[in-house]
């Protein structure tokens, strides 16, 4: 399919909305993405035609929803090229998935004195679960430093690795800076010490085609709401042989084979990690969103978004007094910046009145802000439905903000 931006924009009903009488320009895609009509219709169709709890009923509706749910798992498997459906676990989102791994893999392989590695530029969701694990097990959290461009310093990372390293967990793309990290090298280096590797793909799965088998990471996770699907649903990929060894994270319905007061046995993968009624509607919405993306082609999306990012970087760099944080050449999806000494909240609020939605603050990445000695940034984050014209409007909006502050 050719990349027809006008057609694509009409697929997303919210994009034609006006706010404060101005055409909406949605540049907060790193926080959450908008939904195509296909996904909205699919969700509506489930509730109007087939809704029923999964895995439990023998009746028509339950069997239909169960098969849609399991087909969704298959779609996800293909999308990231996992080996087996057993390796695809539906979670509540990225945060939930990282907590699952931190608990369960932690129980399996982390002991007192062991070490876990994250990076300076992680989202809080990829820091705090590991801190909790370290507290529980008296293990040590080590941090890969970043350089001024926001890149991981790989030489320093190599020095952190040793026989005590049990888990390395890094984002593919940092949410606060938009830097694409060299996760293949991170993974290969960790494996030299038999450490497990988790890739937080919350900001990459929608931008960069990923093949988990080629990458060889042990875990890979992302959230539905950032890939044009519902919120409250996400995916954890894990290698089957590791998931097999890990104890369950939560107990409840669906994750058991048999329950008795004498001995409870657990379900096979992937259900072992899906306790309770899952967000089956959300899971199906992920598959619909993935089908939609596949129709357009993730390579086409990546190419278009790279052009957009390049254009936005040039345009924003031409604003006097604007400083971009995260200047690596390898970037995707986002530009973080500060405008003179104007507080990002003030800039964000003025842009909002012009119909432009950006994010301001620490982006749940306080250690990254601390590294740059700043309180926060303004962040424009992009999706494939954004246009150069929208970036031009952002540019004019920024000039207006400066004017209002006498800059
Ligand atoms: N990691 C990264 C890199 C993120 O950008 C986010 C969301 N901003 C998360 C983790 C957490 O995702 P969620 O809130 O969907 O669980």
Write up this protein.
This protein folds into 2 domains: 5-30 and 297-402, Aspartate Aminotransferase, domain 1 (Alpha-Beta Complex); 40-294, 3-Layer(aba) Sandwich (Aspartate Aminotransferase, domain 2), CATH 3.40.640. 40% of the residues lie in helices and 16% in strands. It is built from 14 helices and 17 strands. The chain has helices at residues 5-10, 37-50, 60-80, 94-109, 128-137, 154-160, 183-191, 212-215, 240-245, 280-296, 298-317, 344-353, 366-371, 388-404, and strands spanning 18-19, 22-23, 25-26, 88-91, 115-119, 140-144, 165-171, 196-200, 219-223, 234-238, 256-258, 265-266, 322-325, 334-339, 356-357, 359-361, 377-381. The strands form 5 sheets. The chain has a 7-stranded mixed beta sheet with strand order 4-10-9-8-7-5-6, with helices on both faces. A 4-stranded antiparallel beta sheet has the order 13-14-17-16, with helices on one face. The protein has a two-stranded antiparallel sheet with strand order 1-2. Helix 7 links the parallel strand 7 (165-171) and strand 8. The chain is globular, with a radius of gyration of 22 Å. It binds 4'-deoxy-4'-aminopyridoxal-5'-phosphate (PMP).
Spatial strand order of the main sheet: 4-10-9-8-7-5-6
| Poorly predicted regions | none
CATH-scheme architecture of the largest domain: 3-Layer(aba) Sandwich
- Beta-strand percent range: 15-25%
Q: How many distinct helices?
A: 14
Integer tally of domains = 2
- Could you tell me how far the N terminus lies from the C terminus, measured between alpha carbons in angstroms? 46 Å
Supply the helix-strand structural class.
Answer: alpha/beta
CATH 4th-level superfamily of the largest domain = Type I PLP-dependent aspartate aminotransferase-like (Major domain)
- Give average pLDDT, whole number: 97
Topology-level CATH name of the largest domain: Aspartate Aminotransferase, domain 2
Number of strands: 17
Shape: globular
Main sheet overview: 7 strands, mixed
CATH top-level class of the largest domain: Alpha Beta
Helix content: 40-55%
Ligand species: 4'-deoxy-4'-aminopyridoxal-5'-phosphate
